[in-house]
Design a protein that fits this description.
This protein has eleven helices and twelve strands. Helix content is 42%, strand content 23%. Helix 7 links the parallel strand 5 and strand 6.
Length: 264
Amino acid sequence: MIRMLFALIMITTAAQAQTLRLAATTSFNNSGLSDVLLPAIKMDTGIDVQLLVVGTGQAIRLGQAGDVDAILVHSKTAEEAFVSDGFGTHRREIMYNDFVLIGPVQDPAMIKTSATATQALQRIATAEATFVSRGDDSGTHKKELALWSEAALEPEQFGAWYKGVGSGMGASLNSASGLDAYIMADRASWLNFGNKGGLGLLFSGDPKLFNQYAYLPVNPAKHGHVNAEAAVRLEHWLTSGRAKDIINKYTINGQALFIFNSQP
């Protein structure tokens, strides 16, 4: 009886050790890549990744509280602060794509011919064309605010044309589609978005729209209960040739959504 109980405890402990809580961005999930990666991770490593889909700001707060074992986000400044404050052990770059500006195909603000992303935003503001902002402290929202700042514009001073919806990428795109509005999105979420309506991709290619995703394990010295061993094994997988092959081959209509760029 004692042996059976001990065996049951060992089996239960082993099963628990295979579960990892990962806070990841809504753009990572909306792109569909998570649906491809997570089954492969479980098959190769035995790790059952429990995905918490939130914006970058919320993912970082979950990591700070020790409510997850690792985070996968895309806001370098916030990530570096997370590590320097002792909440993460380190920051490991995994893959990238880019941000794009979406809007009505008629393009009333005429952003399609803009030379830079900041010029495109300036034209939207000048025209007071309806613009949907995620407004959720996500990596996408942080990048949008940084670009407005570079354009010498302050969203808090905008009129009713600027609409902060406080939603994830998919929901925000739905709002933009319903309002026939401009919006900034990551390319992967846009390509995987099914309710495009009268919207089209109008501006891209500015180097400032580069969008890097990074993996940060939560520091076990700060939160002793986190599954640090599984977080290390997941990092090894995410930086492997197997992950590179899956990420680089993930396409929609022949277009790659992410490019693997992790370094040894």
